[in-house]
TrEMBL record:
One of its GO terms (molecular function) is protein serine/threonine phosphatase activity. Its cofactor is Mn(2+); Mg(2+). Pfam families: PP2C. SMART domains: PP2Cc (SM00332). SUPFAM superfamilies: PP2C-like. It catalyses: O-phospho-L-seryl-[protein] + H2O = L-seryl-[protein] + phosphate; O-phospho-L-threonyl-[protein] + H2O = L-threonyl-[protein] + phosphate. This is protein-serine/threonine phosphatase. It comes from Adiantum capillus-veneris (Maidenhair fern). Keywords: Hydrolase, Magnesium, Manganese, Metal-binding, Protein phosphatase. Its EC number is 3.1.3.16. Residues 34-303 form the PPM-type phosphatase domain. Belongs to the PP2C family.
Length: 424
């Protein structure tokens, strides 16, 4: 059965849901209680202007080698600037660096719990490796791991990941690291020694978005950008959620889309279409709204309920309440930093984890066993004397306190940490 046929069948089964006998409904609930996996379908579309956007889509990764039940999916969007090399490098290396930082374990829960920290390590390792090449290019990176109903999103830059939950509600799962919209990031970079202002013309007039100088980058976090300054950090905002069995749609896209469409508009314009057509529709809609000004890339990932799944909420009621909830949420919270609250009334999306700090010590925590024999970032082997605690003061620190608590970093990664924190 091809995607279109299957989609039509799902639509049929959805529309007939009010006639499903009670026995089938109970069976459906019983199956979903056993943790039945969603069917994952994805589609991608792009319209190039500069050729700097790149995408990643893999649905056959395995937590445990040769164990089909440990399969997970990985999706990514990388929007390069000053060339495509950082975007291509990240597409090819980021996932491997994240997986290397994960414990070898048969426990899915343990693996998922370790994921946020491994994502931080993997992003930094990829940045260090790319910067060593000496190329000046940089990239956003939005990496999404889908393991059964658990979705983990890690992102630097402004390639947003949005959830259109089937149970109701549209949520941004990432935060935009743009100086223009993110006051917290402006303060961080200024405190680190960067200058944030608009481009000045000869007459004194200021134009364009807020940028960081030297370099003139609009983004406060990225992978690459060796020429801009260490305070443009590769530490991702990470969010982990649990979707209800009704599933949902993820829209991962570069700013070519988000500069033209709100999260809600993007979600709305492709509802009812299968993933492949939905991605095309979102790109088409953004080009219609704003024209082709930038690379415009969209990846749509559907987590479809198990075949025969029956929603517990009647669709007609659901749709009305969704719309009200969406309007209220967007009115009250504005644009890009809306997040799903734990078990919110409209969406039934459970928030498992969220962290966005640019402080490495906070993000790696204080697990004394982590990084004793391997660097917590790059996994390089260390002897007991090589490692420096992530909690030790920086070379610029006035107090320069020492710490014997793990996690520990090798000297290269410690130097990276100091550079990211800038001047005290
Ligand atoms: Zn290291």
């Amino acid at each position: 059965m091809d995607v279109q046929q299957e989609f039509k069948m799902r639509l049929k089964s959805d529309s007939a849901e009010c006639m499903v006998p009670l026995a089938a409904l109970l069976k459906s609930e019983f199956d979903s209680d056993k943790g039945q996996s969603p069917t994952v379908r994805y589609g991608q579309a792009c319209h190039d202007k500069k050729g700097e956007d790149h995408m990643l889509a893999k649905v056959d990764c395995q937590r445990l080698p040769s164990d089909g039940s440990s399969t997970f999916g990985v999706f990514g969007v990388f929007d390069g600037h000053n060339g495509a090399s950082a975007a291509i490098f990240s597409k090819e290396n980021l996932l491997r660096n994240v997986l290397r930082a994960l414990p070898i374990t048969t426990s899915r829960d343990e693996w998922l719990a370790a994921l946020p920290r491994a994502l931080v390590a993997g992003f930094i390792k990829t940045d260090i490796d790319f910067q060593e090449k000496g190329e000046t290019s940089g990239t956003t990176a939005t990496l999404v791991l889908v393991d059964k109903w658990t979705v983990t999103v890690a992102a630097v830059g402004d390639s947003r990941c949005v959830l259109d939950a089937s149970g109701g509600g549209v949520f941004a799962l990432s935060v935009d690291h743009r100086f223009e919209e993110n006051a917290e990031e402006r303060k961080r970079v200024i405190d680190c020694g960067g200058e944030v202002c608009r481009l000045s013309l000869a007459g004194g007039a200021e134009i364009g978005p807020l940028r960081c100088w030297p370099g003139g980058l609009c983004l406060s976090r990225s992978i690459g950008d060796v020429d801009v300054g260490g305070f443009i950090v590769p530490i991702p905002h990470v969010k982990q959620i649990q979707l209800p069995k009704a599933g949902g749609r993820l829209i991962i896209a570069s700013d070519g889309i988000w500069d033209a469409l709100s999260c809600e508009k993007a979600a709305k314009c492709c509802r009812g279409l299968p993933a492949e057509l939905a991605a095309k529709q979102v790109v088409k809609e953004s080009l219609r709204a704003r024209g082709l000004r930038d690379d415009t890339t969209c990846l749509v990932v559907d987590l479809l309920p198990p075949f025969g799944y029956v929603s517990q909420v009647p669709k007609s009621v659901n749709k009305r309440s969704n719309l009200k909830a969406i309007i209220a949420r967007w009115r009250s919270k504005g644009s890009s930093t809306v997040v799903a609250n734990k078990s919110n009334a409209a969406g039934f999306v459970e928030e498992l984890f969220e962290a966005g700090s640019a402080k490495l010590a906070e993000r790696l925590g204080s697990d004394p066993s982590l990084g004793v024999l391997n660097c917590a970032i790059c996994q390089a082997n260390m002897t007991l004397h090589d490692g420096v605690s992530v909690h030790a003061g920086s070379a610029f620190s006035t107090t320069n306190q020492t710490s014997t608590d793990g996690p520990f970093l090798c000297l290269t990664c410690k130097a990276k940490k100091d550079a990211m924190e800038g001047r005290p």
